[in-house]
Design a protein that fits this description.
Oligomer: single chain
Number of strands: 5
Order of helices and strands: EEHEHHHEHHEH
Structural class: alpha/beta
Radius of gyration: 16 Å
Strand content: 15-25%
Largest sheet: 5 strands, mixed
Distance between the termini: 18 Å
Length: 153
């Protein structure tokens, strides 16, 4: 199945399905606003999901730090602690490991919808994962192009 990999449990030798899920930065923004300081619980699905994001995701969160502070009314240190818990729940992937052909395909799919989401979609395609995006316009635009690999929480 798309977005899943099989993994053998060490103790029992049983196989389980683990969904690979790529996070759109807006999902993390909403998680911060809704769940701070327990933001990592949003991405805590032991054994069933593995969350990924491109490295630029970190810079994007810092870029919007002031907005997140205002929305959450957290002290800066508390936000830093929540950010640390969030990043422990995510596997960050360098954009350079994604093949150029995958970038072209992601750009083709995103260019008329939301070019800012190209990196997340490229990582989704590269990992054969599901995309967790809550942007209705993005999802509708991608579905119109027959991309349907979305994660629904």
């Amino acid at each position: 199945m798309v977005g899943e990999k099989s993994e053998t449990l060490p103790a029992r030798g049983k196989t389980r399905r683990v969904s690979r899920v790529v996070l759109d930065a807006n999902v993390a923004f909403r998680a911060f606003v809704a769940a701070c300081p327990n933001v990592s619980h949003q991405f805590d699905h032991p054994g069933s999901h593995e969350f990924f994001a491109p490295f630029f995701f970190i810079a994007e969160l810092f870029e919007h730090k002031e907005r997140i502070l205002q929305a959450t009314r957290l002290r800066e240190q508390d936000l830093a602690d929540a950010f640390h818990r969030l990043t422990e729940s995510i596997v960050f992937v360098r954009e350079a490991v994604i093949p150029i052909g995958t970038w072209f395909e992601a750009h083709r799919l995103c260019r008329n919808v939301d070019p800012d989401d190209t990196a997340c979609l490229a990582l989704t395609l590269h990992l054969d994962a599901l995309l967790w995006a809550e942007d209705a316009v993005l999802k509708e635009g991608l579905r119109a192009q027959r991309f349907t690999r979305f994660f629904e929480a």
